[in-house]
Amino acid sequence: MALPNPAKIPTFIQIVRWFVSPLSLLEECAKNYGDIFTLSISPQLTPVVIVSNPIALQQILTGDSSGNFTAPGYQDATFGCLFGPFSLMSIDSTEHQRQRQLLTPAFHGDRMRSYAAEINNITEATMSSLETGASFSIRDVTQAISLRIIIKLVFGFYEDESAKQMENLLNQMLNNISSPGGAAMLYLRFLQKDWGNWSPWGKHIKFQQEIDNLLYSEIQERRKQADTSRTDILSLMMSAKDENGESMSDQELRDELFTLLIAGQETTATALAWSLYWIHKLPEVREKLLLEIDSLYENSSENLDINTINKLPYLNAVCCETLRIYPVGMQTFIRRVEKPSQICGYDLQPGTLLYGNIYLTHQRQDLYPEPQKFRPERFLEKQFSPYEFLPFGGGVRRCIGAAFALFEMKVVLVKILSTYSLVLVDDVDVKPKRRVLVTAPSSPINMLITDKRNR
Ligand code: HEM
């Protein structure tokens, strides 16, 4: 089956570059082949078609309704082995739809806004543990903040002993799989060998088992003492029943909890670190943002109105530009052609696998002039379609935490910027690199607090 523009790079080199520096591989191919090309980088070496044309992306991501394209789950590849067979990322079709319906209310509207006070408290508690004048890596700080927030969202608490153990283990597990080698270990089955505690996979299994023990013991605890007044995600899942009146099994609950804990913090922590980098890298951006945030306090008390924060235009533009320039998820999850289809003028046969490439779409010169420049104003001047700006993917698998993640970013940024004056320690240009599942800063972004602000 002829595929569009197969990259003329030896497969082995494609794989190595995909793990070590995927963005440069993508840029090179986009330069040579344009909006559509084919790489052999999947775990089974099945070729995948990479697409970065908004019209084609719309066709693919909305293709479930016509049956032309589907969003299959990750049963046996990366996500399947990490998250488990019952994770939202592993399941598909009706089961996926049912599970999404169950989880969606937890991330929307009033429920989400009710977390604002906790997000503020967690941010304040984490920031106040930092010494004025002492340098720290901003990603470590945003990781601690996001992890505590997601633990609170999922379990309803974050301060007790088991939450602290969970935080600790998740941190260790994420750090273990964060190197390019760690990513390779997840993608390539033959590297998944347990040679004891000193081997990366051995360590991974150990952390995973300890996390599972904590998750299962929390599930058991709740089964013994059902509390219908709780509003956290675990309680929501435990009270749900399917059409046959069956509740979720322990393993289904475990897989979903683990998925949300990882997907919900690694991404937001990285996005927050990038946004703080850009805000402090570019003084004019910081000034404009502070002007907008400070105006909030003019007529109001300590407690800022959450709806107002959510709608601040420049803050929103800064968050969008952060997610545009180096999108934390560089591509959508896999999609599959189900019926013969034409994409960007190429005929694709059933079974062909595709990735919507978010990074390359966000770097299109025709949509975003001077794409390497951080310029929030572009989001004030123009409305982008959901297939031109798609940091959270699209269609049936669009990120379930999208609204929550943006809301979290805004509340955390307002809290930090209104309470502290921060500076970057080094004036260097930080570039993105792979950090397992996300595109993170290539070197630590060190910052320090110079002063407390009077807010
Ligand atoms: C800035 C933060 C985030 C970014 C950039 C991001 C990005 C993405 C992307 C690109 C996808 C794939 C979408 C597709 O294939 O069309 C995705 C899926 C997903 N995200 Fe996020 N995400 C973020 C935050 C979150 C949060 C906070 C949660 C949960 C608390 C979350 C949970 C998920 C889940 C469960 C999926 C799989 C959805 C499905 O298979 O139906 N993400 N995310």
Layout of helices and strands:
Layout: H1 11-20, H2 22-33, E1 36-39, E2 48-51, H3 54-61, E3 69-70, H4 78-83, H5 93-103, H6 109-113, H7 116-128, E4 136-137, H8 138-155, H9 161-176, H10 180-187, H11 200-224, H12 233-239, H13 250-281, H14 283-297, H15 306-311, H16 313-325, E5 335-337, E6 341-343, E7 346-348, E8 353-356, H17 358-362, H18 378-381, H19 402-419, E9 420-424, E10 432-435, E11 438-441, E12 446-452
Parallel strand pairs: 2-8
Antiparallel strand pairs: 1-2, 3-5, 4-12, 5-8, 6-7, 9-12, 10-11
Helix pairs in contact: 1-2, 7-8, 7-19, 8-9, 8-13, 9-11, 11-13, 13-14, 13-16, 13-19
Residues 88-89, 100, 150, 259-260, 263-264, 267-268, 271, 323, 328-329, 332-333, 391-395, 397-401, 404-405 line the site of protoporphyrin IX containing FE.
Would you kindly provide a written description of the structure presented here, covering whatever features stand out?
It contains 19 helices and twelve strands. By secondary structure, it is α+β, with helices and mostly antiparallel strands. The protein has one domain: Orthogonal Bundle (Cytochrome p450), CATH 1.10.630.10. Strands 1-2-8-5-3 form a five-stranded mixed sheet, sandwiched between helices. Strands 4-12-9 form a three-stranded antiparallel sheet. Helix 1 packs across helix 2, helix 7 crosses helix 19 and helix 13 packs across helix 16. The longest helix has 32 residues. The termini are far apart. The chain binds protoporphyrin IX containing FE. The site of protoporphyrin IX containing FE has 28 residues, from helix 13 and helix 19. Protoporphyrin IX containing FE (HEM) binds next to helix 13 and helix 19.
